[in-house]
Design goal:
Layout: H1 6-18, H2 30-40, H3 45-58, H4 62-66, H5 70-77, H6 84-99, H7 106-110, H8 117-126, H9 137-147, H10 155-165, H11 171-184, H12 208-213, H13 217-221, E1 238-248, E2 251-256, E3 267-268, E4 271-273, H14 280-292, E5 296-308, E6 313-323, E7 337-340, H15 342-346, H16 355-365
Parallel strand pairs: 1-6
Antiparallel strand pairs: 1-2, 1-4, 2-3, 2-7, 5-6
Helix pairs in contact: 1-11, 2-3, 2-6, 2-8, 9-10, 9-11
The chain binds iron/sulfur cluster.
Iron/sulfur cluster binds near residues 146, 193, 196, 198 and 199.
């Protein structure tokens, strides 16, 4: 192990004196670490604290969470936003139970459903003590400012910079210290450089332009993936279509196109044209009622893209949908309906226009394209 460097000692001393007493810092239980990481992904610490405590009373371990029904799960998550995070947590726990144990390194953790590269590193570092750098927006901001890095060089380069800066002999304290400095001192809009242990080493201190350019470095470093064809030229007639990605208990609903129709026998998502005077949500509710005899409980926009057919442009908007009575769906406009596990659904052949949605779902579920 390399010795602790002077600038590392400065930050660790600052952290020892200024750290907040947060409950997830007092555990090495991978389940509890994961819960905190997922809750903190899009929610502030102060808001997460009461939810975290309550969640662990309701679901003290992975077995309790894996057994939770949709209703119990969503009730417990209500108020935190982005409920798909709760479903991903449950899916991760179910996969851990199926394997019999938690993987303890980033590569193994990334194989679990619902765990991406950032979360895998965070769990590996905080639960299993792996000497890996955890790069969140706070850490990236501190590094960009201290070392004069350009966020536009991309996430991989920032991750490498974080690895280079990592204090390996004290990796857990180091990762926490970097996050804490970004959260409490090197904030996006008003960094308190006078209180910073690195004020004398920092390239951005007293440089308003550099401070502003590095306020949200991971946004600048992330190139958004584009789905579908580019938007058609202005004035082109476009047919608007809505699709319902209906989910229940970890499975998705698809319906089989009638044998006597174009592409008969192919599985597709329920949905159809948005009619004149309708908005997307109203069209979605109508299509679900007409095609499945079901009522929409909740719908959340997932993805919109354009697809160019030889004779027309179509704009497709897909919503993640939950139903009031998912068990009661009926094939009113198809040759059958079926609930699919994600991998089974994505193994089907879908109409060409839905390829962008399939790509997005593969990315979300971390399922490789068919060979
Ligand atoms: S000196 Fe200021 S800009 Fe630099 S790392 Fe510290 S708080 Fe951030």
């Amino acid at each position: 192990m390399p010795p602790v460097q002077p600038e590392q000692r400065e930050l660790l001393a600052w952290y020892a004196a200024n750290r907040r007493d947060l409950p997830w810092r007092a555990t090495r239980d991978p389940y509890r670490v994961l819960v905190s990481e997922v809750m903190l992904q899009q929610t502030q610490v102060a808001r997460v604290l009461p939810f975290y405590q309550r969640w662990l009373e309701l679901f003290p371990d992975e077995r309790a969470l894996a057994a939770a029904s949709d209703a119990v799960l969503h009730r417990a998550w209500k108020g935190l936003g982005y409920p798909s995070r709760a479903e991903r947590l449950r899916a991760t726990c179910a996969a851990v139970l199926a394997r019999g144990a938690w993987p303890n390194d980033p590569a193994g953790l990334e194989e679990l459903p619902g765990i991406g590269p950032y979360t895998a590193r965070a769990v590996a570092a905080f639960a299993f003590g792996h000497p890996v750098a955890v790069l969140d927006t706070n850490v990236a901001r501190v590094l960009c400012r201290r070392d004069g890095l350009d966020p536009a060089q991309g996430r991989a380069a920032l991750q490498q910079a974080a690895e280079d800066a990592l204090c390996r002999p004290q990796a857990v304290a180091w990762n926490n210290a970097m996050m804490e400095l970004g959260a409490l001192v090197c904030t996006a809009r008003a960094p308190a450089c006078a209180a910073c242990p690195w004020a004398g080493r920092c390239r951005a201190a007293r440089d308003p332009g550099r401070l502003a350019a590095t306020a949200a470095p991971l946004k600048a470093a992330t190139v958004k993936q584009a789905y579908g064809d580019p938007a058609p030229p202005r004035g082109t007639p476009v047919v608007k279509v809505v699709l319902a990605l209906i989910h229940h208990d970890g499975r998705y609903l698809a319906q089989r196109r009638p044998a006597d129709k174009h592409a008969g026998g192919v599985w597709e998502l329920p949905g159809g044209k948005v009619e004149a005077g309708e908005d997307e949500r109203r069209a979605l509710a109508r299509e679900v009622a007409e095609e499945l005899g079901a009522e929409v409980l909740a719908a959340r926009h997932l993805l919109t893209w354009h697809h160019r057919y030889p004779d027309r442009w179509v704009r497709l908007a897909c919503y993640r949908v939950r139903l009031f009575a998912p068990e009661a769906v009926r094939p009113l406009a198809s040759d059958g309906v079926q609930w699919f596990a994600p991998a089974d659904l994505l193994a089907q052949v879908f109409p060409a226009g839905t390829a962008p949605l399939v790509a997005r779902m593969r990315k979300y579920h971390r399922i490789a394209p068919r060979g």
